[in-house]
Write a sequence for this structure.
């Protein structure tokens, strides 16, 4: 992959690829260029209301895209109250508008989607039953999924000369078999190892709340598209927080399952295959509601994906009482000293814990004393695992076209690892260090009889472009291989956040109250390994108390 | 671990350890030294009848140890028809006799076992119910398990100076909670990486069928003890065949589950912790019947071991229809060209396949053409993973006492790897190569709709000491992480085996028909990843047709 391209040509190649995708947006869905010229990465505009004000979507289309979650939509379609063609049209239009505001898409598959939607509608009419539990539902995919006949460049200019995908990712096959409709792929960072979804082909995805802020990454295209309500269910990979950070930055919620529960096979690798890293990449859903995540997990696993992917665990999705009627026990982590919480996030956590307590649940603070291993050191260890490749393959993929690395690659790393390179000998010790951390959390959860841990997903609301830094709070769940969900639980409000400010504490990135006013604030809820089912119900409880589910 | 010991002292240390264990055998259970003097590694005697002829066991004790499997025994004890004290006494006596014939034990815990057996009996009498599904059952353990208060030297002389274990292995805790009685630990090879259970502390375990043959390894102590009927259920580790090879060499059956189903935590490591090898060590049962393996798996998993060991998968043991009443589809592998089958094993496989076909099952030959990746190359790749440690820790443990390496360490390796040492860079490629092999088998099983694969466990019956070589057929299931069982399906019979001889085929180790006459012949049945439950029922089918369950 990534054949050598004359350096002078990379810009031409990227521009041509970008234009060919843009050309797939129907003319009548285009915003005036005078308007889009204002949507730049230095503008602090919010574009959240553009779909509603631009006149491109009908009132019904606005309703379809705004008023429901995926569970509602599949129910309405299954009952024949809504045609897939109408739903898909609405989301295609809205995604097209979103793309023009925040550069959230890579591949556009509107024509294919409309054909598939018609197929769904005809099937239902003819057979009197749905294709599956996701019948007719438009689903957006991170660019790294393979969809037959469509490219997967991953934002590497050198990948533009690769032929379109010859096969689907296993999950794409599974979702298709369940009735899904694919209509777009979404933007991500060059190398996928930063929280700024920025590359030299598709540009930089902007945060719809404030274009001068990051949309997060590596699935920032999904995050921005979901916030624009140009998608109701997205699918993303996550090895350090990639599926959760965009929800943290743009609002909404996402779910990272335990590894092996959702089939991973058949995607495009962003780096070298065969890593000995013990931190697996996983795939999970992002969207508007916890029940949609459950719909996704339940449906995918019911399709027996282990028959198609040997690395998927042969385990059914267990049915539990939903929601659990016993009081729950939550551990609470209120940050770590190397990355203290910004006031809005401290308040979000405080409010969440308070609401849980008020409703009879127990909160066990875990950040007093040395109950938990250092979150910062744990993330540093994870980063070593991510830097194992002696061949530095992602950089080879960059160099192959002559394109420059994106700026945030410099910021999403530990200064401690500047001169570090892996050895096989140290890898053994790293594995031992990791095992100790996993054991410590496991023992803690057992001894404290915890059902889940509430912790920050990030220390701040969406920061400015290229200033996110290292996602120490999300990568924790990856290293532990614990399922984890992220929920929007409120908004930054300067006047209320103020009392959570702590004097003399240095914050990174800087806290700018005027910038973050009104931005979504998120918490992370981490469950226990393989207990995705239990975590899902716990997330429902948290969502019910503080989540303010979107789309309803 | 393994503090430096003056070289001159290792013999004294080993002798003293050996004597201290031997001293735990009650005087009245000792065989005359004139008799035991004949039980040497160069003798071709069978000692299988010694327990019955030595006069140490009563007729009832002979019956208890010979006539039942573990399922029978726990049922009889639960019904109050048999006391644990009587069962445990009988097995302690028989294990003591076995030890004097074939050197199968390391640690002796007869006193502790008797106390525990009394506790079981008193509990049942007092409470009117059993402690658990393994109530009162004596279970033998490979030396690498930690049992509180008992040493775990693993046959390293340098480990003799370690204090006794301070805690139990997680599985030992689990089995204890289920009612088990521990009465002995069993012998294994220095480094555990050969099929000759031989070390400088406890000597060499001999094959009860013919003392000049290997008992197999690395769990040879279990294999020999089980063949002497000095145990009814043993527990062993397996990373290349360690739990299956002794059953192949000595008779009986064993089960290697999918990794993560039986808790592995808390044992003593034979080498360095933190290996990046993707081939996990697993623990499984060995003994007399498939239903005993099921009893073990079902009971252990019902105890929710994931609460105690974070690396155990949170998955229940699924209940299936037993046995499956549909015809099964079996793949058949009749060896590979680098290690062709000896006539008795070729006949064993042929008979097994024929019986299965006769009873309506389908046999799909997999060894024609290139349907499967080379078994030899697959084993070679596995061996590279086993040789990853740049510090060669097992050899450090040997050198720490000045003891010599055992001879078979030279024989259980690939000449291709003589000068090979691992690099981090190659490890990536090795992982890719492994993934391709896993994918090939997974695709094959799917395309051919196979329920299981019947293949050799080894190319021969038990060979002479130090000539087993590399276990290419068993390590396949470890690399694939497929569950696998081994069953004795007959005996070598020169006159019947003859027709399976192939002219001009070089056999390794050499085929000596007169030596192997009457030895058990085994087949291996490999199931699908995570489908341990299905494999167990399939093994029952094979056992029912050709297995001739022992103990009934």
């Amino acid at each position: 992959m990534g054949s050598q391209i004359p350096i002078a040509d990379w810009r031409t190649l990227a521009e041509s690829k970008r234009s060919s995708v843009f050309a797939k947006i129907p003319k009548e869905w285009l915003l005036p260029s005078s308007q889009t010229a204002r949507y730049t990465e230095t503008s602090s505009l919010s574009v959240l209301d553009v779909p509603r004000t631009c006149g491109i979507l009908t009132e019904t289309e606005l309703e379809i895209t705004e008023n429901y979650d995926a569970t509602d939509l599949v129910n309405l379609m299954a009952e024949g109250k809504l045609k897939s063609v109408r739903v898909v049209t609405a989301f295609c239009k809205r995604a097209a508008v979103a793309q023009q505001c925040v550069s959230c898409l890579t591949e556009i598959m509107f024509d294919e989607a409309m054909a598939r939607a018609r197929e769904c509608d005809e099937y239902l009419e003819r057979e009197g039953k749905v294709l599956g539990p996701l019948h007719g539902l438009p689903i957006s995919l991170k660019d790294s999924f393979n969809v037959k006949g469509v490219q997967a460049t991953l934002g590497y200019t050198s990948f533009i000369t690769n032929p379109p995908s010859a096969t689907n990712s296993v999950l794409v096959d599974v979702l298709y078999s369940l009735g899904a409709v694919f209509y777009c792929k979404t933007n991500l960072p060059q190398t996928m190892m930063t929280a700024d979804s920025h590359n030299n082909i598709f540009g930089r995805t902007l945060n719809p709340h404030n274009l001068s802020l990051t949309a997060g990454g590596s699935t920032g295209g999904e995050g921005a598209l979901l916030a624009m309500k140009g998608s109701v269910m997205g699918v993303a990979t996550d090895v350090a927080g990639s599926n959760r950070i965009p929800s943290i930055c743009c609002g909404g919620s996402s779910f990272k399952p335990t590894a092996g529960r959702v089939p991973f096979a058949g995607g495009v690798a962003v780096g070298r295959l065969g890593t000995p890293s013990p931190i697996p990449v996983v795939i999970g859903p992002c969207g508007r509601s916890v029940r949609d995540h459950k719909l996704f997990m339940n449906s995918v696993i019911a399709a027996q994906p282990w028959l198609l992917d040997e690395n998927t665990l042969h385990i059914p999705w267990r049915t539990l009482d939903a929601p659990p009627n016993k009081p729950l026990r939550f551990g609470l982590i209120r940050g770590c000293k190397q990355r203290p919480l910004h006031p809005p996030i401290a308040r979000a956590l405080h409010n969440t814990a308070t609401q849980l307590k008020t409703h009879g649940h127990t909160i066990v603070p875990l950040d007093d004393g040395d109950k938990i291993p250092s979150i910062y050191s744990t993330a540093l260890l994870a980063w070593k695992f991510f830097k194992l490749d002696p061949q530095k393959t992602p950089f080879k993929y960059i160099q192959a076209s002559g394109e420059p690395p994106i700026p945030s690659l410099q910021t999403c790393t530990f200064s401690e690892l500047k001169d570090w390179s892996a050895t096989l000998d140290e890898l053994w010790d790293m594995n031992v260090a990791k095992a100790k951390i996993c054991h410590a959390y496991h023992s803690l959860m057992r001894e404290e009889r915890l059902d889940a841990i509430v912790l920050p997903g990030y220390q701040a609301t969406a920061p400015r472009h290229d200033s996110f830094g290292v996602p120490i709070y999300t990568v924790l769940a990856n290293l532990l291989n614990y399922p984890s969900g992220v929920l929007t639980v409120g908004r930054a409000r300067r006047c209320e956040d103020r009392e959570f400010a702590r004097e003399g504490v240095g914050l990174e990135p800087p806290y700018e109250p005027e910038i973050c006013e009104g931005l979504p604030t998120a918490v992370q809820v981490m469950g226990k390994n393989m207990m995705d089912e239990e975590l899902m119900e716990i997330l429902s409880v948290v969502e019910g108390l503080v989540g303010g589910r979107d789309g309803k």
